[in-house]
Amino acid sequence: MEEKKAAWKELPEGDVLEGGSSLKFKTGNWRTDRPVHIPEKCIHCFICWIACPDGAVKVNAETGKFEEFNYDYCKGCGICAHECPKDAIKMVNEQEVDKK
Which is it for the CA torsion 88, 28, 61, 46, positive or negative? Predict the structure, then answer.
């Protein structure tokens, strides 16, 4: 006997057990290149923060300055480095970083 599958109209709307959050999924481990901050070039314009699709750029709320990259979530897309007007971010091969 063939099992009857529910028609799409019979499925509950938004069949999700709980709200999702990307904070639960650290996706930085698939990166091949990582951004490296060059503090002496940085003017703290936060274009990197605005452009980052993953929220991996951390800003210190007290000082109003770039703090660090959150590599747990950075996927190495390079948008931050591309958008930086002062070349204060360079992309470095992940394997090169691991050697150091």
Answer: positive
Specify the pLDDT at position 70.
95
Q: Would you say 92 and 32 are in contact if contact means Cβ atoms under 8 Å apart?
A: no
Residue 31 · residue 97 · CB < 8 Å: no
> Quick check: pTM over 0.85?
no
Q: How far, in Å, CA of 13 to CA of 22, rounded? A: 22
CA distance 48 to 66: 9
Gap between the Cα atoms of 44 and 84, Å rounded: 10
In DSSP terms, 65 is beta-bridged to 60
Helix (H, G, I), strand (E, B) or coil at 57: strand
* Mean pLDDT lowest among 8-22, 29-43, 82-96: 8-22
